[in-house]
Specification:
It comes from Nocardioides luteus. It is a single chain. By secondary structure, this protein is mainly α. Among the domains are: about 10-215, P-loop containing nucleotide triphosphate hydrolases (Rossmann fold, 3-Layer(aba) Sandwich), CATH 3.40.50.300; about 220-275, no CATH class; about 285-380, Arc Repressor Mutant, subunit A; about 675-900, Alpha Horseshoe (Serine Threonine Protein Phosphatase 5, Tetratricopeptide repeat), CATH 1.25.40.10; about 910-970, Arc Repressor Mutant, subunit A (Orthogonal Bundle). It has 48 helices and 8 strands. It has a 5-stranded parallel beta sheet, sandwiched between helices. A 3-stranded antiparallel beta sheet has the order 6-8-7. Helix 14 (about 285-300) packs across helix 16.
Length: about 950
């Protein structure tokens, strides 16, 4: 038999550390230990040390449950390792499984439980909600732990499907009351930059309950010990030809390589290429055993005895002889569940790669025949893979669709969409018939539903649009209506330049009178929502009620809950009357387990509370929706992500910036959603003093996907442009942002007041250093900004607290601009009053940062008017807020303001000399000290002394304030 060390060599310390982390032998039997991520290179010994750990756990009285991830590429079966784990639990604890399934029927979606208890087929739309399944598996592990502490081991998570990774995230983040510990292993050397596990590992390792443990390579001394252990095996003979130092040098501390090099020591030549090295072992097999191993390699890393017998085509005795030889040579290893697995994945890969292309195709054809004929059992994903690799496109198509349906029913939308898209590619790649086109339309709808559930609504909409545009001109209206329905639904996830109203009308026009009720109900639900957005309330009510009746008649509880949310939302109407109906709609969705309608209902409820100025209640509602999405494993799905954004805005407004920033640290976020969240982060980073203008500018191309990104990123651009004195850039950024937002939100939108106020404020930052001759032209821009930021005539929606605050700010910034420009200078009393109103408005609408800036502006104006006593408490309050926020720009500004001498009354020393008056006029005109010196034929140093005297006499904090005071007192024309 092949060499394999009887004892664990060089891993005693690692095993003790790992055992301590999971709580073995440390008095933690009743509570478990920490969850562990076991990392290590391929072949370094992860499986072996986990085998030892499981032995210790069993001796310690723990139940050990093991699941393996397999390398099926894009044909992965959803939750594959947990299917294996559930099979073990169902066999060992059938009563526990039955009890949990009664409370959590989603458990019946998993094949082992369904086989044991007789599961039912859940409605596909509801099944895509994997949150119920996650909760069911969590509850099952809890119940199992009541019998004895549980150690769950998931091996090779670098091959895990997306649903398995999401389920692990759920289990890592949701505490167990009982002693349940998870260990997940993965190949560290497989994690390239774009590997799907990479980001989730970063997220997992930040959790306080998770510890990452890296299993390093063996030392040279440990390798020598391992070589000696292996060479002492009776079948190794006298170890002839064994060069221990060569093995030490070439194995590089990898235990698997050591074993292979020892095993190959008797060969005439030892190739350096590992694949060739692995294949040397096959030379020791006879033809029958080699045929068995070749056949097994086409199945993947493992294959059932039943399937191998059906495919190999050998009589039982011959097959057993070949298997026995492969097992003795440690090429295949038998498992207790009747499967054979390659001792190492690298070995299976090397065997498969060594096959000729024709051999591979023929082997996959035989697997297809065995699985299709019923000679062996398997899953649809495996059949689809074999059929695709065999070139049997029709079987691959049927099996791929079935695999997608299985993944969707099990709550695996990522895997479902992959299977559906593979089937779509197969259909699209052949001559289109009417039957094929109809199947294609239905597949696109299924794939889009799965993509949306996985958080990829943008891709779903694009897929549906491309397919609709490729339909023949005489295609049935039903097909167009189905695809348009998907486009409408996915467009609701983003606010962009898609004309949803036109799509909705086109879909309704295309829908035939004899359309299936489920198609009509779904389109009517989407149509009602678009009508609500368009404020066509009566038409929306009629369409919504018809959709609701159809959904209830069809038993589509999820769709009915969706329509109920649409009918209950305020949609621009006075919010107060709709708050309780929305609560009822949310309760309805929760009651039937319709997660996405519940998320949307919570979000709409938050909007209504916000519009009713019940801000704290709105914030809590946003938080609950966001946390529900995370808890149920769909953080990027529509409305779960929107709730994250809304919760961020609440935290930002109320000054909880560190909590808000934590929401932007979002690993695994779909690319289409990242820019919106990034614009939020940049807003806080800039407010804390970072120069992020270039990063904000780079977000512009993404506005087309989600225009809300422009709302924040353009503010960052305008403030940065104002700080560097670039008025043209301020105006350009404003126009670009308003143009994008106006396309998505309508010609005039409430946020325009904020954009205008910030734009004028940015211009004010540039005005003092601007030559007098350029200021009139700049003020024409200011007047336009003010006009556009003021509500147009006929706008009948009353301002809420936020709107009132920004409306006051627009007027106050406009007066300040005229004051600084010296054009149509407002009366001091008018200017002070406008800013007092602004401060008061932001005290009621608690935007902590904008309140601080408003107080700074009022303090500056009061100080310029000689009322330093009134300015001082405003500045102190602003300083306190800025310190809490970490808003460095405010603190720097206040520092400059507070360093100037303060004068409480006028006296003889306040009078400016003729030379000082002359210099003040040039300062007000925007001249630098050097320019003034050249014009007056004096040195720059002398000008600097005069400017300092002017500031002291006027009690000004800087040149800008001195110029403003000079204009107000009539010292400057």
């Amino acid at each position: 038999m092949a060499q394999s060390a009887e004892r664990l060599v060089g891993r005693d310390a690692d095993l003790e550390t790992l055992a301590g982390l999971v709580g073995l032998g440390s008095g933690l039997l009743a509570t478990g230990g920490r969850h562990v991520l076991l990392a290590g290179d391929a072949g370094v010994g992860k499986t072996r040390i986990l085998h030892e750990l499981r032995g210790r756990a069993a001796a310690d009285g723990r139940q050990t449950l093991v699941g393996h991830c397999l390398d099926f590429g894009d044909s992965a079966e959803a939750y594959l390792p947990f299917t294996e784990i559930l099979d073990s639990i169902t066999t060992a604890l059938p009563d526990v499984v039955a009890g949990v399934a009664d409370v959590h029927p989603a458990l019946l979606r998993m094949a082992p439980v369904a086989r044991a208890l007789g599961g039912t087929d859940p409605e596909l739309q509801e099944a895509l909600d994997r949150g119920n399944l996650f909760a069911a598996i969590h509850a099952l592990l809890e119940r199992a732990a009541e019998k004895a502490p549980v150690l769950v081991v998931v091996e090779d998570t670098h091959w895990a499907d997306q649903s398995t990774r999401d389920l692990l995230t759920f289990l890592f983040t949701r505490p167990f009351d009982g002693p349940v510990t998870l260990v997940a292993s993965y190949r560290a050397d497989d994690l390239h930059r774009r590997h799907p596990l990479r980001r989730q590992l970063a997220e997992w390792t930040r959790l306080p309950s998770v510890e990452r443990f890296h299993l390093g390579r063996l030392s040279d001394d440990d390798v020598r010990l391992l070589v000696a252990e292996l060479a002492a095996d009776p079948d190794a003979g006298d170890g002839a030809g064994l060069d221990a130092e060569s093995i030490v040098r070439r194995a590089d501390g990898n235990a698997f390589f050591v074993e292979e090099l020892v095993q190959a020591a008797g060969a005439d030549e030892l190739p350096w290429d590992l694949a060739d090295l692995l294949l040397i072992r096959l030379d020791q097999l006879d033809a029958t055993a080699r045929e068995v191993v070749d056949t097994a390699s086409a199945a993947g890393r493992d294959v059932s005895d039943e399937l191998l017998e059906a495919v190999a085509g050998l009589d039982r005795a011959t097959l057993d002889a070949g298997l026995r030889q492969a097992i003795e040579r440690a090429i295949l290893v038998p498992r207790d569940d009747g499967y054979y697995v390659f001792r190492h994945a690298l070995l299976g890969e090397a065997v498969y790669d060594d096959l000729l292309p024709g051999e591979r195709v023929r082997l996959h054809q035989r697997y297809v025949e065995a699985l299709s004929s019923g000679l062996a059992t398997g899953n649809a994903a495996g059949l689809a893979r074999h059929a695709r690799l065999a070139g049997d496109h029709e079987t691959a198509l049927r099996a791929g669709i079935a695999a997608g349906d299985e993944a969707a029913a099990a709550g695996g939308p990522d895997e479902a969409s992959q299977h559906y898209q593979q089937a779509i590619a197969l259909l699209a790649g052949r001559a289109a018939s009417e039957e094929d086109t109809q199947r294609l339309v239905e597949l696109v709808v299924k794939a889009s539903d799965a993509m949306v559930a996985a958080g990829h609504a943008d891709r779903a909409g694009k897929l549906a649009r491309e397919q609709r545009e490729s339909l023949p001109a005489d295609a049935p209206g039903l097909w167009r209506a189905q695809l348009l329905t998907v486009e409408i639904e996915t467009s609701f996830a983003y606010v962009n330049d898609v004309r949803v109203g036109e799509l909705a009308e086109a879909a309704m026009a295309a829908l035939p009178d004899d359309a299936p009720p489920k198609v009509r109900a779904r389109l009517l639900a989407a149509y009602a929502r678009e009508l609500m957005i368009a404020r066509r309330y009566d038409d929306a009510e009629a369409a919504g009620q018809e959709a609701l009746a159809l959904a209830e008649e069809l038993g589509r509880s999820g769709l009915a809950a969706e329509v109920a949310v649409t009918l209950a939302a305020s949609w621009g109407r006075p919010p107060q009357p709709w708050i309780e109906p929305l609560r009822t709609a949310v309760e309805r969705a929760a009651r039937v387990g319709a997660l996405h309608p519940e998320l949307r209902g919570r979000l709409q409820l938050g909007f209504a509370l916000d519009a009713a100025d019940r801000l704290d209640e709105a914030g809590e509602t946003y938080r609950s929706a966001f946390e529900l999405g995370v808890e149920r494993g769909v953080p990027w799905a529509p409305y779960a992500f929107d709730a994250r954004i809304a919760w961020f805005d609440y935290l930002h407004t109320t000054g909880r910036w560190d909590e808000a920033l934590a929401l932007t640290d979002a690993h695994g976020i779909p690319p289409a959603l990242w820019p919106w969240l990034e614009s939020k982060r940049l807003k806080i980073e800039q407010a804390r003093g970072a120069d992020v203008a270039a990063e904000a500018r780079r977000l512009r191309p993404t506005w087309k996907q989600e225009v809300a990104t422009a709302r924040d990123s353009v503010l960052v651009e305008m403030k940065a442009a104002g700080a560097r004195g670039d008025v043209a850039a301020v105006v350009e950024a404003y126009d670009a942002g308003v143009g994008a937002l106006g396309t998505g939100w309508g010609e005039w939108f409430g946020a325009n007041a904020r954009l205008s106020a910030i734009a004028v404020g940015a211009v004010c930052a540039a005005l003092p250093a601007m030559p007098v001759g350029e200021r009139p032209q700049v003020m024409t821009h200011v007047e336009r900004l003010l006009e556009e930021g003021t509500r147009p005539p006929g706008w009948d929606q009353p301002w809420g607290l936020e709107g009132q605050a920004w409306s006051a700010r627009v007027l106050a910034e406009g007066l300040r601009a005229r004051w600084l420009a010296g054009i149509s200078v407002p009366d001091q009393t008018e200017l002070v009053e406008a800013w007092r109103v602004t401060v008061a408005a932001f005290e009621v609408f608690p935007d902590v940062h904008e309140l601080a800036w408003s107080r700074v502006r009022l303090a500056e104006i009061l100080r310029a008017g000689g009322d330093a006593a009134a300015a001082r408490p405003l500045a102190e309050k602003a300083r306190e807020a800025a310190k809490r926020l970490g808003a460095r720009p405010i603190l720097d500004h206040l520092h400059a303001l507070g360093t100037a001498p303060q004068r409480s009354s006028a006296g003889p020393s306040d009078q400016l000399t003729a030379r000082e008056s002359e210099i003040l006029a040039l300062v007000a005109a925007g001249r630098s000290n050097g320019e003034i010196g050249k014009q007056l034929f004096i040195s720059t140093k002398t000008v600097s002394v005069h400017v300092s005297n002017i500031l002291a006499k006027l009690g000004a904090s800087g040149r800008t304030e001195a110029a403003a005071i000079g204009r107000r007192r009539g010292l400057v024309e």
